[in-house]
Design goal:
The protein is mainly α and 101 residues long. It is built from six helices and no strands.
Length: 101
C-alpha cells in the first residue's frame, strides 16, 4: 500500500507534516484496538519519516508514484541508438546527483 495514502499526506510533504499525520493517526488508531491499522501506519511512517527513508523508498520500491533513477537511467540507454552503456562511475555520479535533489 502507498505510504502517502496511508498517512494522508501529499508526495511533497516535509518531515514535520509526515510526523504530524503519523501522530494524529496513532492517536486515532491505538495498537490495542486496531493492531493491523497501527502496523500499516507505522510501516508507512518508517518509509517516509525522513529524507533518507523517502529516498530509499523512491529508489527501490515499485509502488512509488515516480520513476526511480534506476528506471530512468536504464531506459535512457536502452532506448538510445548508438550510445554506449554507462560505466560504474557514471552511474554512481548520476545517483549522487539524484540524492542531492
Amino acid at each position: 500500500m502507498n505510504p502517502f495514502e496511508v498517512l494522508g499526506v501529499g508526495v511533497d510533504a516535509d518531515d514535520v507534516s509526515v510526523r504530524k499525520a503519523y501522530l494524529d493517526l496513532v492517536r486515532r488508531y491505538p495498537p490495542e484496538k486496531h493492531p493491523e491499522k497501527f502496523k500499516q501506519i507505522t510501516d508507512a511512517y518508517d518509509r517516509l519519516k525522513d529524507k533518507k527513508s523517502r529516498l530509499e523508498y523512491y529508489l527501490f520500491n515499485r509502488e512509488t508514484p515516480f520513476r526511480s533513477p534506476f528506471e530512468v537511467l536504464i531506459s535512457h540507454f536502452s532506448e538510445a541508438d548508438g550510445r554506449r552503456p554507462p560505466n560504474f562511475e557514471e552511474i554512481k555520479e548520476y545517483l549522487r546527483r539524484c540524492a542531492i535533489q
